[in-house]
Design a protein that fits this description.
9 strands; 208 residues; binds S-adenosylmethionine; two-stranded antiparallel ribbon; seven-stranded mixed sheet; Rossmann fold; alpha/beta
Length: 208
């Protein structure tokens, strides 16, 4: 996974590669998927949700450019795999999940791996998590029709937001950076994520 899926595709950040080598991805997927845990694809984690392809996890994390002392917000805890990676790369992680059973399972998995700098929250992450804002980095692991304004408002000066934005089956991964009162953004590559369902995302019934 590290060599063929990450390094060969241009992810060369050694700190990130070391963390992704260390974290047991198989611990984050259901037992019947474990034999596929290191394959080059997303996998089902229950309730119609997925753990993202390793390359996309690496790419999105790399774009955050973490130095080790940030407070990071993740929207879409899912299996907890992305949160575990962030936990090793920075000081504090806040992760928000709308599905209570996924959030509970993720919390158990991180506890078993003795990862203690992740705060779990349940609710509509399309509104961010204002209580711990501002964040030096925000990562959204579900697709929004547009960038949710509350997330931009919760970004610290110089902070980075990585988010898939677009339509039902195809989105673009976007990187937003806050510079003073302004935001710069660029499109990174086409992706296909499950929906961000919520007030600033997709209404549940319109998605399907
Ligand atoms: N980061 C996850 C991981 O490492 O396994 C993968 C996340 S999965 C692709 C997307 C997740 O976003 C799902 O668990 C889904 O329930 C969650 N989600 C969708 N809309 C949400 C919202 N408004 N707030 C919080 N979580 C949301």
């Amino acid at each position: 996974m590290i060599h063929w899926q990450l390094i060969r595709r241009g992810i060369v950040n050694q700190r990130l590669l070391d963390v992704m080598e260390k974290i047991p991805r198989h611990a984050f997927v259901p037992p019947d998927c474990r034999k596929h845990a290191y394959e080059d694809r997303p996998l089902p984690i229950g309730d119609g949700q997925t753990i993202s392809q390793p390359y996309i996890v690496g790419l999105m994390t790399n774009l955050l450019d973490l130095q080790g002392d940030e407070t990071v917000l993740e929207i879409g805890t899912g299996s907890g795999y992305q949160a575990a990676i962030l936990a090793y790369l920075t000081k504090t992680v806040h992760t928000v999940e709308r599905n209570l059973s996924l959030a509970r399972q993720a919390q158990t998995t991180l506890h078993q791996l003795s990862i203690a700098n992740v705060a779990f929250h349940t609710g509509d992450g399309s509104l961010g998590w204002p209580d711990a804002a501002p964040y030096q980095a925000i990562i959204v692991t579900a697709a929004a029709p547009e960038v949710p304004n509350p997330l931009l408002l919760q970004l610290a000066d110089g902070g980075r937001l990585v988010i898939p934005v677009g339509a039902r089956y195809r989105q673009n991964l976007e990187l937003w950076e806050k510079k003073g009162e302004n935001f710069q953004h660029r499109s990174i590559l086409p992706v296909a994520f499950v929906p961000l369902v919520g007030e600033q995302g997709w209404p549940e019934d319109k998605w399907f």
